[in-house]
Every structure is written in structure tokens, then in C-alpha cells.
Amino acid sequence: MPWLVPLVAFSFVSSVTPGPNNVLLWASGAAFGTRRTLRHVLGTALGIGAMALAAAAGLAATIAAVPWLGTAMRVVGSAYLLWLAWQIAHAGAVRRGAIGRPMGILGAAGFQTVNPKAWIFALGAVTAFRPADLAPMPGAVATAVTMMAVVVPSALVWAAAGGAMARLLDEPGPRRLVTGALAVVVAATVVLVWV
Question: Is the CB of residue 168 less than 8 Å from the CB of residue 31?
């Protein structure tokens, strides 16, 4: 299995570096704690795995062949990220108890469809690291399962980091600073949608 180490390394770098998923996982960990963010973590991993399978099945070619579809996905993703940034900055969304519940499995999995970093991750893994010694479908499944297995601990790190900072959210001054910085970071990730 010479393909495994490079795929794991690529998956780790792609999943642990900052991006929309990790910012949202951090915010959820801060607002709800790591344990209540586990469904979000699992949904992120499942969504990434599903995208890898979709990319292997040719969805990427369809999006490339229909330019307006890719543009529409970018617009929706950008609007969602800007809405989240506004919620965080103006509604105090990172304060404990300000949001009723954390993102669930389906919501986190669905978010991947509008997350440009997730698309790059899925497409890169399938095109560059799918095992050549396996038939296309088993190779795609092996790639998707490996990616999901790496995403879970990476996502947990971000959720736990948010959970560790939760005590800062009890004081108004630090809460404003944290939520302001987080709102700026979420809004800045919109640039990644259009690069």
C-alpha cells in the first residue's frame, strides 16, 4: 500500500490547516464544548468522504463543463460564510448559549458542498492519490475512507481548541475580542472561494 502514506500526509495537511470547516469547528467547540461538537466533527468527515466519491464519479467534470454551476456554488458559499461572520460579530454567536444547538451531522456534511477548501481537498486526493493498483471504485472508496479517518482527529483538534478557549467567552472584553477576530477570519475565508 505505497499510496497510503502520501494520502494520509496530504489529508492531514489539507484538513488541519485553517479554513471554513476549522473555524466553524473552533466556534462550535467554544460555544458548546468538544463533546457536543462531535456530530459536527463526524458530519465534516462524512461530507468530505462523500465529496471524494462524487469527484471520483465525475461530478468535478460536470462542474467544470457547466461554468455557471461552479459560480453558483461560489456565490452560495460566499453568502453563507459572510452570514456566519455577521452572526458571530453582531449576534454574539460564539457566546455560550447564544445559539440553541451545534451543527449536526447532516448540516456539517451539507456544508462541504459550498466549502471551496473541501472541494480542493477532495479533488486533489482523488486525482493525485487514488490507489492505481485498485480498480476505480474500490480505489475511490479507499481514498474516501482514508480521508475521513484523518479528518476526524484533525477536526477534533479544532473543536477542542475552541472548547479550551470557552472560559474566555464568559467575560465581555475577551468575548468581544475573540468573536471579532473569529468574524474577521470567517469573512476572510471568502477570498478562498474566488481564488
Answer: no
Task: Please state, in angstroms and rounded to a whole number, the distance separating the CA atoms of residues 91 and 5.
Answer: 43
**pLDDT tens figures, 105-117:** 999 999 898 887 8
Q: Name the residue among 184, 41, 159, 9 with its Cα closest to residue 111.
A: 41
- Cα dihedral 9, 11, 14, 18 sign: negative
| Nearest-5° Cα angle at 114, 110 to 115 | 100
| pLDDT band at 91; cut points 50, 70, 90 | low
> In a 3-state reduction of DSSP, which class is residue 44?
helix
H-helix segments, 92-167: 105-111, 116-129, 136-164
Per-residue pLDDT tens over the stretch 3-44: 899 999 999 988 998 788 888 898 888 888 899 999 999 999
Residue 39: CB atoms within 10 A of its CB come to: 18
pTM for the full model?
0.76
Name the residue with higher pLDDT: 121 or 171: 121
3-class DSSP state for residue 97? coil
49's enclosing H/E stretch is helix 38-56
